[in-house]
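Re: your question about Arsenate reductase

S., sorry for the slow reply, the queue was backed up all week. Below is exactly what I fed in.
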Amino acid sequence: MNVTIYHNPDCGTSRNTLAMIRNAGIEPTVIEYLASPPSRDELAKMIADAGLTVRQAIREKDTPYAELGLDDPNLTDDQLLEAMMKDPILINRPFVITPLGTRLARPSEAVLDILPDTHKGPFTKEDGEKVLDEHGQRLV
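Result:
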């Protein structure tokens, strides 16, 4: 299965998502989006395919979101996308694309909705939360 993850290795949610993909026996294409951001069209498509609004795909925490005035409800999607392109840290993560769909994997276990049921045993997130049992069955 062809899987792509827009990943930030400094993000625990992103690391957990990548580990769940690998637990399903899949080695995804990993794009560290801060160094190699998607194009504007790719980003807009990912957001739409995930069923989100552009505003829902913006990361507020630990970003210049407030400083840039991006909380202004009068800003258009084009203006928000432009800000995300100028400063990719504003792109929420991780986005995952599979043949079964596209998700912003927040929480990380949202990725399970678009992966095949091929998990190899249990999975526990970095914070100790158990997500899959010993049979690879979803607990949450």
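DSSP finds three helices and six strands in the chain. The beta strands are 4-7, 29-32, 95-98, 101-104, 123-124, 130-132.

Happy to talk it through on Thursday.
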